[in-house]
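Handout, section 3.2

Students often ask what a structure token actually looks like in practice. Rather than define it abstractly, here is a full record for Cytidine deaminase. The first block is the sequence as you would receive it.
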Amino acid sequence: MTGRLVPNPAAGCGDPVIRSLAGAAFATIQDRYVQERHQIAAAILDDDGGIHLGLHVDAMVGRAAVCAEAGALSAARLSTHAPLAAVAAVRYPKPREPAQARLVPPCGLCRELLLDHAPGLLAVVHDGTALVLTPMAELLPHKYVGTKWPTPTLPCPNPNRI
């Protein structure tokens, strides 16, 4: 617990899903924040109404760090087989920053990971005027498609268009 008075960034949001997810992520990071160690918490909602939490775990070697969304995904998969519906992540301010937590969209790596495991997932993002639920696929319109898992056959482009 940090002891700072930092307001919940989604407290006044009218959407109950956003308020619930962001509130869970905010409460987690407010309780677990440690400068240079844990700065972001994420919450994932499943179709059964369960909320699964993850905490950003930083490392001296940046590549070894674990994003909060990856932790929440792992927690969700440990506790349910239900499809995943939505994700929110909250960044807690460092002591030298203004006392304002904020919703942050998943990083590119997490977008890839979350779409691998939940193609219909919605993400809480700020659209410039309000917090909204946006399809993760819109945040990553050209997702990497590898050969590990079966993928749908994509149509060939029309050569007359080029």
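Discussion prompt for tutorial groups: The two ends are 58 Å apart (CA to CA). How would you have guessed this from the sequence alone?
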